[in-house]
Design a protein that fits this description.
binds zinc ion
Length: about 80
Amino acid sequence: MALYRDETRVKKANPHSAFETVHKPGVKVPYSGIYRCVNCGDENCCNKGDPFPPQNHHQHQSQSPIGWQLLVMAVQK
Ligand SMILES: [Zn+2]
């Protein structure tokens, strides 16, 4: 679970499809931020335009496919 120290520097997002979409490994990251693997709960910082970590980002107990879901969106000015 992602941690933060100062709650005045983060805010709850309004409903947004960016937080609902589950992305396949290796596809292009649409928004910079912290993504969570829906299979194992591992979290990764991903930069916009880079590929998501691969299927084998680490060993999974489950044979279910992995996917990356946005947990914290980085806001860039
Ligand atoms: Zn995983």
